[in-house]
Amino acid sequence: MADVEAAKSLSSLLNGIAQIVYYNNSEITEELLKNELYSDLSQEEFKALHEKMKSLLKSIATADMDHAQLEAFLTAQTKKQGGSGVSAEQTAALSRFWKNQRVRVRESLLAQSRWEPSLKALSWRVDLQAANSRGETTDSGPVALVELELGKAGQDSEFLCLEFDEAKVNQVLKKMADIQESIDRIVHRT
Predict the structure, then answer these.
(1) d(CA 28, CA 19)
(2) Nearest-CA neighbor of 123 among 157, 148, 143, 150?
(3) How far apart are CA 105 and CA 96, in angstroms?
(4) 110 CB-contact burial (10 Å; exposed 0-12 / middle 13-18 / buried 19+)
(5) Residue 88: enclosing H or E segment and its boundaries?
(6) What is the pLDDT of residue 178?
(7) Residue 86 in contact with residue 94, Cβ under 8 Å?
(8) What does the alpha-carbon distance between residue 102 and residue 93 come to, in Å, rounded to a whole number?
């Protein structure tokens, strides 16, 4: 019976950590978790357990581990010496938690990494002026029209319309090529 209660407390601790770290639930605090789940532990013992579980969860979530990766990671953690490893009960709780929460944690991490407002849609066209109403042609050249749909999650979108002549299109393409070159330099350096 004590093992069942310990497993429930550990599972609740992992859920509480996820509420704080990934779901931005300000009602859950470290102090609340200690008082509700581990009132029998000293502050130092609880702090050590909390930090260990938080660190393990962050490692698992950052790597977005699949089942095989998680099993290998947890097996390696059980073999650590000097009290820094995890017990079989902790391994089981972490495995259950990740199986149930992986998708939600991943979505939360993705949402936290997005810039707001974000680009929801982009449409464009090129217009050519063939002739005016009197049948005369003009030298204005082609015009690129770009419409950007920008918005924050759960809010109405805003639309931004841009008009580019050929020189401006070339400038934008040059800037994009410069950005790609910078990204390639950074990626190949690491």
Answers:
(1) 7
(2) 148
(3) 14
(4) exposed
(5) helix 88-113
(6) 96
(7) yes
(8) 13
Residue tagged 């950052």 (tokens): 62
Residues paired with 124 in a beta bridge? 146
At 127-177, the pLDDT tens digits run 887 766 666 666 678 899 999 999 887 788 999 999 999 999 999 999 999
Residue from 46, 44, 15 nearest 28 by CA: 15
Whether the CA torsion 105, 108, 112, 118 is positive or negative: it is positive
Block residue for tokens 């217009």:
127
Nearest to 9 by CA among 27, 42, 35, 43: 35
Count, in order, helices (H) and strands (E) of the chain: 6, 3
Say how far apart CA 81 and CA 66 lie, in whole Å.
Answer: 25
Query: 27: which 2 tokens?
Result: 């009602």
What's the CA gap between 164 and 146, in Å, rounded?
8
Instruction: Write a three-state SS string for 131-175.
Output: CCCCCCCCCCCCEEEEEEEEECCCCCCEEEEEEECHHHHHHHHHH
DSSP state of 49: H
State how far the Cα of 75 lies from the Cα of 78, in Å rounded to an integer.
Answer: 5
